[in-house]
């Protein structure tokens, strides 16, 4: 089966290097409104947001008067204009006469549109109708949209050739990602294209196509004014493109990092890492990676340009088998949350930093509660430490607590899985359903490592409030929301609490140092907390 391994961007024929590390890829904002006045208002918002052009979706207008409305939109636009009049058969809203639709696009060109979008299916007809009389200023984008899948590299290459043969000034292909590895094929086509090309992959799994097109030489990407109001599935906001992903600074030499997970869109990691990269002047970008099969993903994106990954639910254990070498601690835990690709040979190294951040935060919480000095033995020594969950994070915390001298108990929905982990590290096991009645002593530690209570199911909790009276400290690995129901009820029951934010920042720092080299730990952690507090 073809995987379409992504080549280094610098090998692409059309990669255009520019000064100051900036890329020439344009950002267009789709303008979809029912009136010309609202469109003009949104066009000015797009300019203020930092857009390079506006895509005016004529098929969203009500009561469209072609000559008057086109003239108004062109003359009043503060940015270059791209006119799209998308028919229903290509995913748009227009359902009228085809000749009238093409007449409108011709008129837009005559009145001074900078770009018009013509679908491949009618491109030959359109070009025949203008008899070569295209204004010099106007550029024609010939587009093809596939809402079902992403074809093979060979099929995509043939599609691009077919679009070029129409006489297109700019080629546009938009496909749909059934798997994130589908995007690699579009990158491959983009980086080797001899003509200006827009190559985008729709859907959440295709998000990286809209960000990394700046690295691989794409002509244009789209960013919306508001989240959720999109002209195609998976479009990010222009604010995210510019301020989260630092889009203007991406280029052929930018290293790609990201968080591998499913789900993954809730993760705050890109906010922290991209701000940290920017702060220290590191040429990298960190993105969300919705991955179904971690082995297939790592095999496909095998270039050293894809330099490192954080790994979250549900891939931490499967990722161990994908690494060429695994740190002894991660091997003992049986899970990795950090994968680094060695630049000299492309080999993958797996680490586990989960337990470092979480155990340190729990120790600090106990010291604060009991006024214990930070010197000497761990405050976890001899404590009964209950871990909820037997996945990758559960394994990490159980291992970390055991190393610190705690007596560990694993509670899991599936008792057999809890028993398996308990036998591995020398702990006890029980079913999660029995946890409410488990209270052999006071002063226990509780650590939830499952997703119970995570957005959007914020009313859920893994254990009843009544059972929390036996614990002196409760930790929750969930950090969206920062204060979960479990933590709120634990505090009401008199226990000290530690949020998942502390684990998140602790492990993020360890991973950041792996990508970056030696840097002030305090500087990065303070930076990450600041970014978090201003983004949550």
UniProtKB/TrEMBL annotation:
- Ranges for domain Shikimate dehydrogenase substrate binding N-terminal: 259-339
Q: Which residues form the Quinate/shikimate 5-dehydrogenase/glutamyl-tRNA reductase domain?
A: 380-462
Q: Which SUPFAM superfamilies match?
A: Aldolase, Aminoacid dehydrogenase-like, N-terminal domain, NAD(P)-binding Rossmann-fold domains
Q: Cite a single GO BP annotation.
A: chorismate biosynthetic process
Drop me one GO molecular function for this one. 3-dehydroquinate dehydratase activity
| Annotated protein name in UniProt | Shikimate dehydrogenase (NADP(+))
């Amino acid at each position: 089966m073809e995987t379409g391994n992504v080549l280094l961007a610098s090998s692409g024929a059309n990669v255009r290097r520019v000064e100051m590390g900036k890329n020439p890829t344009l950002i267009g904002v789709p303008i979809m409104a029912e009136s010309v006045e609202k469109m003009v208002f949104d066009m000015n918002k797009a300019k203020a947001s930092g857009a390079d052009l506006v895509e005016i979706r004529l098929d969203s207008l009500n009561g469209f008067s072609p000559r008057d409305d086109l003239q108004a939109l062109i003359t009043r636009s503060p940015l270059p204009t791209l006119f799209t009049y998308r028919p229903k058969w290509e995913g748009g809203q227009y359902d009228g006469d085809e000749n009238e639709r093409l007449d409108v696009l011709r008129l837009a060109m005559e009145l001074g549109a900078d770009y018009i979008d013509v679908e491949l299916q009618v491109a030959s007809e359109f070009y025949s109708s203008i008899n070569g009389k295209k204004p010099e200023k106007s550029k024609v984008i010939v587009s093809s949209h596939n809402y079902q899948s992403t074809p093979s590299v060979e099929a995509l290459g043939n599609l691009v050739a077919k679009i070029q043969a129409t006489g297109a000034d700019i080629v546009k292909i938009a496909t749909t990602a059934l798997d994130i590895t589908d995007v690699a094929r579009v990158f491959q086509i983009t980086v080797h294209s001899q003509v200006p090309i827009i190559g985008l992959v729709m859907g959440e799994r295709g998000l990286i196509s809209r960000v990394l097109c700046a690295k691989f030489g794409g002509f244009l990407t789209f960013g919306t004014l508001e989240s959720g109001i999109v002209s195609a599935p998976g479009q990010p906001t222009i604010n995210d493109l510019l301020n989260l992903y630092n889009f203007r600074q991406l280029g052929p030499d930018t290293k790609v990092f990201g968080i591998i997970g499913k789900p993954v869109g809730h993760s705050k990691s890109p906010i922290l890492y991209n701000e940290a990269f920017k702060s220290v002047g590191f040429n990298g970008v960190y993105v969300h990676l919705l991955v179904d099969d971690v082995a297939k993903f790592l095999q496909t994106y095998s270039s050293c340009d894809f330099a490192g990954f954080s790994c979250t639910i549900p891939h931490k254990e499967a990722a161990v088998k994908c690494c060429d070498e695994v740190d002894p601690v991660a091997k003992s835990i049986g899970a990795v949350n950090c994968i680094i690709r060695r630049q000299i040979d492309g080999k993958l190294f797996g680490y586990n930093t989960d337990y470092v951040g979480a155990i340190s935060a729990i120790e600090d919480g106990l010291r604060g509660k009991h006024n214990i000095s930070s010197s000497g033995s761990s405050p976890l020594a001899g404590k009964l430490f209950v871990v909820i969950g037997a996945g990758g994070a559960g394994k990490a915390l159980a291992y970390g607590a055991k190393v610190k001298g705690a007596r560990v108990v694993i509670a899991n929905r599936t008792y057999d899985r809890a028993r398996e982990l308990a036998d591995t590290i020398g702990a006890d096991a029980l079913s999660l359903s029995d946890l409410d009645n488990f209270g052999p002593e006071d002063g226990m530690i509780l650590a939830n490592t499952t997703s119970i209570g995570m957005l959007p199911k914020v009313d859920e909790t893994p254990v009843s409030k009544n059972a929390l009276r036996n614990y002196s400290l409760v930790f929750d690995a969930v950090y969206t929301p920062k204060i979960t129901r479990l933590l709120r009820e634990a505090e009401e029951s008199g226990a000290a609490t530690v949020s998942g934010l502390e684990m998140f920042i602790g492990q993020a720092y360890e991973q950041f140092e792996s990508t970056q080299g030696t840097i002030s730990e305090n500087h990065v952690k303070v930076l990450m907390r600041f970014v978090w507090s201003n983004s949550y």
